[in-house]
Amino acid sequence: MNKQKKLFCYYYHCLRNVQKALICAGYSKEQLQQSAQDVLQNQEIQQEIQRLDEQRAQRELKEIVISGLIRLATGENQDAIRLLLGQPEELQNQLETLDFFAISELKRSKNDVLEIKFFDRYQALLKLYELAEQEQGSHQLKQFYQTLEQDIKTTQNTKE
After folding, report:
1. Under 8 Å between Cβ of 52 and 45
2. Helix (H) or strand (E) holding 6
């Protein structure tokens, strides 16, 4: 795939507009008419756009996981304690406002004793550390995007 097609894929991935992506990628007005219809039919371009979309989805999922792990590792447990020590009548109206995110298991025994198990904060911190180490390994991906952005700027400057 040539540089111009890669630029198109990148811009289409970001903008979701064929015409604008073609213009940003440096296609001429004559090419625009012909290319607008053909470009998304190209198998190679479809695959590249799909790859970029999958990378975005992976990044978004990773951000959700990281924020959940941070919440587990640093969150507060006073609502769970309130549930444990509070009177059922008082708590019934408050249940929707209480935060039970850190609770992994909730049981009431035969003796009517409430048992609460929490997620392991230490394990959440370890997982965060592992993810941080992996992020350092993905530095090469960041370099690719920086190179792509530089290529885009160079292409735009040469047109002007």
Report:
1. no
2. helix 3-15
pLDDT digits (tens, 9 = 90+) for 109-140: 888 888 999 999 999 999 988 888 887 766 66
Cα angle vertex 130, ends 127, 135, to 5°?
125
**pLDDT, tens digit (0-9, with 9 covering 90-100), for 78-100:** 888 888 888 877 888 888 888 89
Taking phi over 0 as left and psi of -120 to 50 as alpha, with beta for the rest, 142 belongs to alpha
Which residues touch 121 (CB under 8 Å, ≥6 apart)?
72, 73, 74
Tokens at residue 14, please?
Answer: 């970001």
Reading phi first (left if > 0) and then psi (alpha if -120 to 50, else beta), residue 86 is in beta
Strands (E) across the chain are located at 103-108, 114-118
The token duo for 80 is 């769970």
pTM greater than the 0.70 cutoff: no
Q: How many CB atoms are located within 10 Å of the residue 91 CB?
A: 14
CA–CA–CA angle 98, 102, 106 (5° rounding) = 80
Q: With contact defined as beta carbons under 8 Å apart, do 148 and 10 qualify?
A: yes
